[in-house]
Amino acid sequence: MQSENLKLVNSNVLKLIAILSMVVDHIAVGFVPSGTTLELILRTIGRLAAPIIFYLIAEGYFYTSNVKKYLKRLFIFAVISHFPFVMYFGISWFQGTSVIWTLFLGLVALTIVQKPSISVFDKVMFVALCCLLAWMADWNYIGVLWIMFFGVFRGRFQLQILNFVLIGIFLYAIPGIYTSGLNSVFRLGFLLVIPLLALYNGKQGRKSKVFKWGFYFFYPLHLLLLYILKYYISI
């Protein structure tokens, strides 16, 4: 059992850490030479962002008063974020899309598995479909599975982390390192998020529209600004 006295981190703090980590990671991708020690350090730090957001999406499912509005909000920002994402990372319009699409599909998967009226077989098929639809998105099916298991095992931290580690090691870290060698060893940085999640107290912190909406607007905006900066530096 975790000591309640040690749970000092609320969701607002986790969001700030995720945002800072995300910016560090995206700066490393666009401005730091590949294969350097600096890139390795920055991208390792960047591994904190996605797992934190996935965890908070699962938490949000249980706190939201309207799941449909939650899903609609994620879908809208997935569409908005697609364009700055492909522009900044220099890919074609249909080659990939942002992590917001993964968040949307992860929440869809969690919503489905939480419905007792749906059979186990149908749940498995729906989750598989969500994973397939997320295939080209940032963090793809890995994010979908993380969100789903964070939600399914909510309140059972050890099971949450067990599934988090197994999925991260076997579906994310090992395949990446096998394909790209030691240049992808930074992927193991996802493990650094575990102490932060262990400190999470299940509380939101100070209620604010900035914290509620900040990530949604910040994500496409920071990619657009980084794209503009990268463009002018290359001139």
Which structural class best describes the helix and strand composition? mainly alpha
Judging from the principal axes of the Cα atoms, what is the shape?
globular
- Give the SSE string: HHHHHHHHHH
- Structural Rg: 17 Å
Main sheet characteristics: none
Summarize the amount of helix as a percent range.
over 70%
What is the number of helical segments per DSSP (H or I, 4+ residues)?
10
How many domains make up the 3D coordinates?
1
Q: Which parts are unreliable, with pLDDT below 50 for 5 consecutive residues or more?
A: none
- How far the N terminus sits from the C terminus, by CA atoms, comes to 56 Å
Strand content: under 5%
Give the arrangement of secondary structure elements:
Elements: H1 11-31, H2 37-46, H3 49-63, H4 67-89, H5 99-113, H6 120-133, H7 140-152, H8 157-180, H9 193-198, H10 209-234
Helix pairs in contact: 1-2, 1-3, 1-10, 3-5, 3-7, 4-5, 4-10, 5-6, 5-7, 6-7, 7-8
Task: List its salient traits.
single chain, 235 residues
Task: Describe this entry's structure for a reader.
This protein has one domain (4-234). 71% of the residues lie in helices and 0% in strands. It has helices at 11-31, 37-46, 49-63, 67-89, 99-113, 120-133, 140-152, 157-180, 193-198, 209-234. The chain is built from ten helices and no strands. With 235 residues, the chain is mainly α. The chain is globular. Helix 3 packs across helix 7 and helix 7 (140-152) runs antiparallel to helix 8.
